[in-house]
C-alpha cells in the first residue's frame, strides 16, 4: 500500500530532529506560573509539540515595550526562572541545552530540547557584563534588537513609521557583538535594521543566523531580508528561518498561507542554497490577551501556521514541491543544527 503524504511527513518528523528556531514560549509560561499554574510546558504545550513532531525549540526572552527600560532585566530573569522551575517539575520531559551534543542527548532520551535566546538585548541596558550572566544562565543566542531601538542598535519596523534617521551598531553594540563571538554565542539578525546588519557582517567572521525572517523580494516588509543580505548570510554559513507571520509572508492579506510561505523558502533555496533555510515560525497566537496586530499596523494579522500541531503541513508542502527526504531533513532542523554544531560546543 502506497504511503500517504501525511504518513510520509510523519515519518520524516520521526527520522529527523524538527526544530523551531524562534518561539516566544517563556513570556507565556512565566505569566501562567504567576497565576499559580505549574507544569505549564508539559501539560499545555508539549502535547501540541509532540503532535506536530517538534523535537527542539529556541525560546526567546522577549520583553514587551511597556516594561522597558526599568523592568527589562527583571522580566527576562523571571522568564529564565520560570523555565528552570518547569524543568525541575518535568525533568524526564524537558532539557535545557547549551551545546549541540546536549540537543542530541535530549532527543535520544525523548525530551524536548530547549535553547535560550535574547530577542533584543534590552535587558542588558548598556551593561556589557550582564551578557556573561545570561550566558551562565544558559543563553546561547543574541538577537540584537526587536523592532525598536535599544542601546546596541536600531530595529527594523513591521511597517513604515514616522521617525528620524536610523543608525547602525552603537559603540556598545560593537562591543556586544565582539563579546558574543568571544563567548561562542550565535548572533541573530532578525529584527535588526539594514545598516545594523551591515555593521554586524563587517565586524564578525563566523556564521550568523536570521532565526525568523523571509525574503523581501516576495514580501516587502523591512523585517524581511534583501537578496544581498540573504546571499551574505549564506556565504557565512548562516541559516534563515521561515517566519509564518502573514505580514511577512505576503503583501496581500489574502495570500498569507502555507503555500506562499513556501514560496519564500523556494526563493531562498534557489538564490542561496538548500543548506541555508530552516524554520523560525514565530507562532504568537497562543499568547494571552495579545492581539496579533502590532501598534500602528493597519490590517489584521495571523500566523499562517497557527500551531506547532500544524507543522506537518509545512513538511507535506515540501514533499509536494519535490524536495527529497534528505533535503527536508536539512530544512526542518538539520541546517540550524549544523550551525549549532560549529559554534555551541
TrEMBL record:
One of its GO terms (biological process) is proteolysis. It comes from Sporolactobacillus nakayamae. Gene3D superfamilies: Metal-dependent hydrolases (3.20.20.140). InterPro entries: Metal_Hydrolase, Pept_M19. Coiled coil: none annotated. PANTHER family: DIPEPTIDASE, MICROSOMAL DIPEPTIDASE. This is Membrane dipeptidase. It comes from the Bacteria. PROSITE patterns: RENAL_DIPEPTIDASE_2 (PS51365). GO terms for molecular function: metallodipeptidase activity.
Amino acid at each position: 500500500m502506497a504511503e500517504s503524504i501525511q504518513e510520509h511527513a510523519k515519518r520524516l518528523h520521526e527520522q529527523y530532529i524538527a526544530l523551531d528556531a524562534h518561539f516566544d514560549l517563556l513570556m507565556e509560561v512565566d505569566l501562567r506560573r504567576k497565576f499559580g499554574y505549574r507544569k505549564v510546558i508539559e501539560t499545555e504545550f508539549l502535547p501540541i509539540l509532540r503532535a506536530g513532531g517538534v523535537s527542539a525549540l529556541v525560546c526567546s526572552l522577549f520583553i514587551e515595550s511597556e516594561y522597558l527600560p526599568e523592568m527589562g532585566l527583571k522580566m527576562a530573569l523571571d522568564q529564565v526562572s520560570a523555565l528552570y522551575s518547569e524543568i525541575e517539575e518535568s525533568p524526564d520531559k524537558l532539557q535545557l541545552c547549551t551545546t549541540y551534543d546536549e540537543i542530541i542527548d535530549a532527543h535520544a532520551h525523548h525530551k524536548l530540547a530547549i535553547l535560550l535566546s535574547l530577542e533584543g538585548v534590552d535587558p542588558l541596558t548598556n551593561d556589557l557584563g550582564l551578557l556573561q550572566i545570561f550566558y551562565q544562565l544558559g543563553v546561547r543566542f543574541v538577537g540584537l534588537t526587536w523592532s525598536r531601538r535599544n542601546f546596541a542598535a536600531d530595529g527594523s519596523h513591521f511597517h513604515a513609521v514616522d521617525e528620524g534617521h536610523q543608525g547602525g551598531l552603537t559603540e556598545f553594540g560593537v562591543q556586544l557583538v565582539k563579546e558574543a563571538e568571544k563567548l561562542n554565542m550565535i548572533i541573530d539578525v532578525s529584527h535588526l535594521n539594514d545598516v545594523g546588519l551591515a555593521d554586524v557582517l563587517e565586524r564578525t567572521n563566523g556564521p550568523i543566523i536570521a532565526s525568523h525572517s523571509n525574503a523581501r523580494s516576495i514580501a516587502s516588509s523591512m523585517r524581511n531580508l534583501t537578496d544581498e543580505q540573504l546571499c551574505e548570510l549564506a556565504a557565512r554559513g548562516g541559516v534563515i528561518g521561515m517566519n509564518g507571520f502573514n505580514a511577512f509572508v505576503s503583501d496581500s492579506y489574502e495570500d498569507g498561507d502555507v503555500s506562499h510561505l513556501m514560496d519564500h523558502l523556494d526563493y531562498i533555496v534557489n538564490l542561496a542554497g538548500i543548506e541555508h533555510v530552516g524554520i523560525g515560525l514565530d507562532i504568537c497566537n497562543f499568547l494571552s490577551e495579545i492581539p496579533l496586530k502590532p501598534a500602528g499596523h493597519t490590517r489584521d494579522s495571523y500566523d499562517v501556521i497557527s500551531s506547532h500541531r500544524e507543522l506537518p503541513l509545512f513538511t507535506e508542502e515540501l514533499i509536494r514541491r519535490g524536495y527529497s527526504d534528505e533535503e527536508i531533513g536539512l530544512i526542518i532542523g538539520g541546517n540550524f543544527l549544523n550551525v549549532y554544531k560549529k559554534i555551541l560546543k
